[in-house]
Each structure stands twice: as C-alpha cells, then as structure tokens.
Write a structure and sequence with these properties.
Layout lengths: L3 H16 L17 E3 L4 H6 L1 H11 L3 E5 L11 H10 L3 E7 L5 H11 L3 E4 L9 H20 L3 E5 L7 E2 L2 E2 H7 L6 E6 H6 L4 H7 L6 E4 L1 E3 L4 E3 L8 H6 L1 H4 L3 E4 L8 H13 L4
Parallel strand pairs: 1-2, 1-12, 2-3, 3-4, 4-5, 5-8, 8-9, 9-12
Antiparallel strand pairs: 6-7, 10-11
Helix pairs in contact: 4-5, 6-7
Organism: Pontibacter diazotrophicus
GO molecular function, one term: isomerase activity
Keywords: Isomerase, Signal
Amino acid sequence: MNTRRDFLKSSGAMALGALLLPNLAAGKGTAKVNNVGIQLYTVRNEMLADAVGTLKQLAQIGYKELESARSEKGLYYGLQPKEIKKITEDLGMTLRSGHVGIDKDWERTVAAAAETGQDYLICSSLPSRGQTVSNYKHVADIFSKAAEDCKKSGIIFGYHNHEYEFEKENGQVLYDILLDETDPELVKMELDLGWVILTGNDPITYFDKYPGRFPLWHLKDMDKTKRESTEFGKGAIDIKRMMQNAEKSGMKYFFVEQEEYAGAAMDSVKHNYQYLQKMSI
C-alpha cells in the first residue's frame, strides 16, 4: 500500500529527475545531466560585445538556464529587462537568476528583476566588508531585509560565496554565521563549489549540515596550484560526486562558471557542456 510519505518521496525523486535525472528509473550510474545552466560572467566580454549573438551561441551549444551578472552596460548587458526575457525565451532558454549588489539602486534592481521574470536575485559580494563575527551578523540583518524586499516582488533572495567567507574569527567560520543568523526559508545560498573546495572545505559537509539550503550552485573546476578556475576535468573538483548529492543540497539550478581560460572563452564553454553531457550519475 502506498502511503502519503511514499508519494512525497516519489514526487521528490521525480522532481529531481526532471532537472538532473530524466532516466532515474534506470538506476544509479545511468542517469544523465540535464538543463545545464551558465553564469554569463563566463562569457562577459562576448556579452558586452554582442549580447544577442552570444546568447544565440550558448543556445546552440545546448545551455538552457542563465544567470546574469553586473556589467559595464548594466545588469543585462545593455538590454532592457523585458527585452532579455523575450530574447532568451525565443531561444529556448530561461533567465533564472542574476548577480547584483545591495546598494542605492536596490529598489530599481528588484523591480528590473521582476520584469525579467527571473526566480532569484543573488547578492554577489558582501555589502559591508570586515572579516569579523560582528560584521557578518550585521550582513545577515541586511540580507534578511533584502530578502523581504525580494519576496514582495515574487523573487527569492540569495548570496553567492567566494573564498574569504570561510575565514574564521575565534574559531568560528564566518560563512556559517550567514547561514545561522538568517531564516532558511527566506535567505538562500548559491554555493560556489569551486571556492569551497579551494578553501579546503567539502561542499557535501555543508549539504549535510544545512540540507536544502543551496537551491543554486556555481559549478566550476579549480586548479589548486594556480588557484583559479579551469575547464571541467582538469582541476580538483569531483563534479560527478557533487551531482550525486544534488538532492541533499536542495539544488534546483546550477550554472557553469569559468573565470580564466586556456584559450577562447567559448571553447571552454563548449568543453564544459560536452563534459557534462558525457557524464553518467
């Protein structure tokens, strides 16, 4: 007899399957990665030179989910919110998220994000600098207020980590303060897996300690010697292991990100997409 609990567990598995594991019934080791996203900072110069043309190239490669980033031409690379919404939809892609700052233009930033129809608005750096427990508690308060603003517009607020958040004061990891001092239903985290690993930490440890708190990921490989990003399969991150723990983290969307390249950025973008397509989970 199927219970409600069984149904919910099955529904949860199917929801994850729609994102990552379309062949879930075939069992572990045969599922494929689907709905690959990309952080547009990866192709920042290309977006500034020709936003529409670059989006077309990404669509042709196979990318489906997009995350924007602030640029010299504004939040959407010179495009208007409704304009980028239509362009991406026409290309079969969805603008899911955007990297922004909490500043004097915050209200306009939230309003613009609502116009694009995106689900998430991600603060990309600390709005108040200072590597102290006191400052991180202050930042947590700022995030809570920003999250309320976003909620009113139907948007989910989150924060994207770098390397410095994993420093400690008096033995306390500063990043953990942001998690502990904010409402998990209101303030989400976009975990940059590469930076976590570069600091000597394991993302899975965070998935275990804060299950469901990380609906967004930045998926990047890292060269530990150079301390910079690299193409998938050339660095220190076990991408397959990360994907196998997606459900535990609460991941709904992930965005491929690479900041440094061995050659042309678009070549790296193609390599990373093809690497994921060849992967079985």
